[in-house]
């Protein structure tokens, strides 16, 4: 983008430079005394952040009193390369709504979530109840030992993107995707939550 080249995975939708610049723009982080970070506010056509996190448009159609699903993680969970409507958290909410299920999603992902200490410090700042669900995403593969610590609550997304597949080019770079990639991930996550009886 710095050279004025739009990634092929965005061009396939006819996206223009305004869209590409907006969805690929990094975010500002505000550090807090408790050793955690939140996102700085932003208002634009495609990317909106308020009160420290990225907004999910699906919540405008839902009631905040519904079951909450919090999404934590890094830039993939945040949705670099995608507009607000096509982030993984918003798409999970849309899948639930299409399935006549009521949930409220919050996209709490940010770049510092790569840091275990800062991410757990952020978790401590949020009033999460026993009924709420936490989805934590990372682009790093977990070892078998780390997976075992999660008691089977782990989804490896790599098999869903192995070629050949019919999605076309979904990757903007090594880890970030366009809306088709996020739609696939959201479908997998949503189906997993349903199968587990969580939503």
UniProtKB/TrEMBL annotation:
This is SGNH/GDSL hydrolase family protein. It comes from Pseudolactococcus laudensis.
């Amino acid at each position: 983008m710095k050279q004025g080249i739009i990634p092929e995975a965005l061009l396939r939708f006819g996206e223009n430079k305004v869209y590409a610049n907006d969805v690929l723009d990094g975010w500002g982080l505000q550090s807090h005394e408790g050793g955690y970070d939140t996102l700085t506010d932003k208002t634009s056509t495609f990317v909106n952040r308020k009160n420290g996190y990225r907004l999910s448009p699906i919540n405008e159609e839902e009631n905040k009193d519904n079951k909450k699903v919090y999404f934590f993680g890094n830039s993939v969970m945040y949705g670099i390369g995608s507009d607000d409507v096509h982030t993984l958290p918003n798409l999970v909410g849309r899948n639930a709504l299409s399935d006549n299920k009521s949930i409220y999603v919050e996209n709490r992902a940010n770049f510092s979530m790569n840091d275990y200490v800062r991410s757990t410090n952020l978790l401590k700042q949020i009033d999460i109840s026993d009924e709420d669900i936490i989805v934590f995403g990372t682009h790093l593969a977990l070892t078998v030992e780390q997976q075992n610590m999660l008691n089977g609550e782990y989804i490896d997304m790599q098999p869903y993107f192995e070629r050949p597949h019919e999605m076309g080019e979904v990757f903007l770079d090594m880890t970030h995707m366009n809306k088709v990639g996020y739609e696939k991930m959201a479908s997998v996550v949503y189906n997993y939550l349903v199968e587990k009886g969580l939503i």
